[in-house]
Design a protein that fits this description.
The structure is a homotetramer. Chain A is an all-alpha fold. The first copy, chain A, has eleven helices and no strands. Chain A has two domains: 66 residues, Orthogonal Bundle (Arc Repressor Mutant, subunit A), CATH 1.10.10.60; 150 residues, Orthogonal Bundle (Tetracycline Repressor, domain 2). The N terminus and C terminus of chain A are likely disordered. Chain A binds a DNA duplex through helix 3.
Chain lengths: 225, 225, 225, 225
Amino acid sequence: MAVNPRTRTASAGVKSKVEDRALVDRRRRQIVNAAIERFGKRGYHATTISDIAQRAGVSVGLIYQYFGDKEDVLFLAILEVLDSYLEQIPSSAGSSGDPLERFRAAVHAYCRVIDANVDATVLAYRETKSLRKVRRNLIKQKEHETNALIAACISDCIRAGLFEKIDIELLTYQIVMFAHAWALKAWHFRGKMSVGQYVDRGLAVMLNRVLTPRGQRERAPLRAR
Amino acid sequence: MAVNPRTRTASAGVKSKVEDRALVDRRRRQIVNAAIERFGKRGYHATTISDIAQRAGVSVGLIYQYFGDKEDVLFLAILEVLDSYLEQIPSSAGSSGDPLERFRAAVHAYCRVIDANVDATVLAYRETKSLRKVRRNLIKQKEHETNALIAACISDCIRAGLFEKIDIELLTYQIVMFAHAWALKAWHFRGKMSVGQYVDRGLAVMLNRVLTPRGQRERAPLRAR
Amino acid sequence: MAVNPRTRTASAGVKSKVEDRALVDRRRRQIVNAAIERFGKRGYHATTISDIAQRAGVSVGLIYQYFGDKEDVLFLAILEVLDSYLEQIPSSAGSSGDPLERFRAAVHAYCRVIDANVDATVLAYRETKSLRKVRRNLIKQKEHETNALIAACISDCIRAGLFEKIDIELLTYQIVMFAHAWALKAWHFRGKMSVGQYVDRGLAVMLNRVLTPRGQRERAPLRAR
Amino acid sequence: MAVNPRTRTASAGVKSKVEDRALVDRRRRQIVNAAIERFGKRGYHATTISDIAQRAGVSVGLIYQYFGDKEDVLFLAILEVLDSYLEQIPSSAGSSGDPLERFRAAVHAYCRVIDANVDATVLAYRETKSLRKVRRNLIKQKEHETNALIAACISDCIRAGLFEKIDIELLTYQIVMFAHAWALKAWHFRGKMSVGQYVDRGLAVMLNRVLTPRGQRERAPLRAR
DNA sequence: TATGAATGAGTCTTCATTCAT
DNA sequence: GATGAATGAAGACTCATTCAT
């Protein structure tokens, strides 16, 4: 996962022994990128600091100049992944005037970002629990922000009369899980279709009705609940 | 997670030093239950064999009488979780003659099972990667079987003219991810609604059309892709 | 330093992973004896757990079954040294009816114990500061108890009219430092004389007057302070 | 501990990468003072070069311009402490014509110096063993010189007929240990009395007889040893 | 000369696994 | 069959020392 040169999230409480802000940013990026790769491939616990150091082409000691401990590395790694979503989705989604177009573009962008970072996405799922609570909450907060991007697109479509007045919260999660599934179930989808096809097929299912008019009628009691 | 007295999946290559089949089953169940609880709560790597032994009320040595190594325990634990889905979904789903009713019941059952085993479900997500490939594949196989239960319900609905002829594969995954989301995003949904409400709201979104007729028309180019 | 088979000071808050009290005592004694030797010879920080394990003829892991961490080992080691004083002084001092005889015997015993454990004594001096405060205080408490043994002998001598009514506190510390000096200044005294001679010469200086009658008279202003 | 501007002991084999003698002296003094403070407070091993650098207000690298390694710093630190005794005792002891007065003044001076440098004194006790043998011997030599100051005072008193012809060596060590005890047992004496009172009470015990005439008679066999 | 970032050997500590009882 | 004490390999982390600037 290529990391944007700009430091997106402030160190978020991770202490460095080096002062020089620019150097800290550069080194952290270098290390975090190596960590994302290793954590993504082998998991947090199975990856050693020495693995990361080797991958990053630095010494073990260096890592401890820029991170307090291994958990710090995981934390910034996950943060980095989520930040990259938050940044790339809007920028790839374009800004078409048509809300439906924007919605579709956003979902495509989301899934493309995930496609480019399957390991990293799985990492965020697997290892967030390895963080202490405060940090776990910060991560959830980030996820919320990403969700909000999608939710906004949905709202816009409703307001424009393109979407029915459906349950935004649920549809948002539907979309989010759909995007994540491309990473979480990569073993199933990869090879069968491209991301683009995946999204198209998914949107077709999600946006059109599944129930036939007949099914519709029988569905009544469900609504009554 | 209560484990069914019957051993559902043969030891699947896990070797035991004890002969007595019945004893092996009993002990393994005892240990696996403790393991699911511990792995679910603290993760695979953070849980020690000693933790599991204590929780199961047995000695450390005993575990090695019934399992070859720690990975074996994880393997049977995850298998157990998936087996319990495979067993409880059909049995709770009922066997209404109406396919739509059966579909709805199945989704409710699925989510209820997951609700009862949130930690275990997350466990399967987090730690499957810690298994060697052969076993990982066995796990995927199991998941396939669960998916097939859902897919069958969908097929039935289509055949009965209650569902449109939609993309079964995608809808199946939609449903599966929806069910898993109840565990994976527990921190979001828990407290906001009950499982029952979650399923009802979810089904409403999934089965009804999202696009308005106007949105429908604009959607055309999407199909063209 | 040979350690008495009886466990003298309860584990004092040091946690063991093994239950069997007798085994714990045996193992701790074995490890603490090795530690006293190594710490005494090379100092606390320069000694590795692996050193101690080797010297004790056990594995590194074993030490951590009986001690929480390295500091625990140091703590019990120092405690052991002080406990051995507290035990051996009275038992070697005899119980002559004559207070002066008992006093002399006690000082001889004290110095003989120290002579037998020079390294251990120096250890207690050097490394007590490496302990956390609570434990440092426990150590001081122990030292107080040893001092009390000497102070009691002095009191008895005064009560019996054999000693002048001098400053008990100061004389006690004089004696204690005298005994410790045999270890702390071993490089000076060793080889020049035996412990016995050291004590005799020391007592002669400490108990008899240094000032001549003429010096006495000039000393007056000092008293006036 | 304020260090005298004059470098008292030649570098004693400690190599510097810098030529300028005056600069070397100034830098070393600066660093050694910081080291004495840190070593005294936290011990040699627990103190890092970086700690010392910070305290001295210089960079880590600078220290290695003036010292070969960490042990060099410790060595010069301990030397500095002992040198400061050697210098301050005579200068504070005054030069009264009366030997007894000079003796008393010397003991007072000794204890006052130690009182001003309790941590440093304890440092010399704790960490001398961390030096290689050659240096340890140099340290002992220094201590000898200090002891000689006291011994000379005693000799003078004897020659002047103010002291009995007692065991000079033993009394010297008595005095030395008495002075050191003010640092080594600071936790006991501090708060109970001032240094001045400590010395007065100590001298009273050390110089006057402890044994009563009756005790004197019973003491006979002791002499016989 | 002075700096402080970089290095990596060395330590403590944990924990899966074994095996004598 | 069951126990739990013993083992030791492996990994996180520290810090003295170097060296390019």
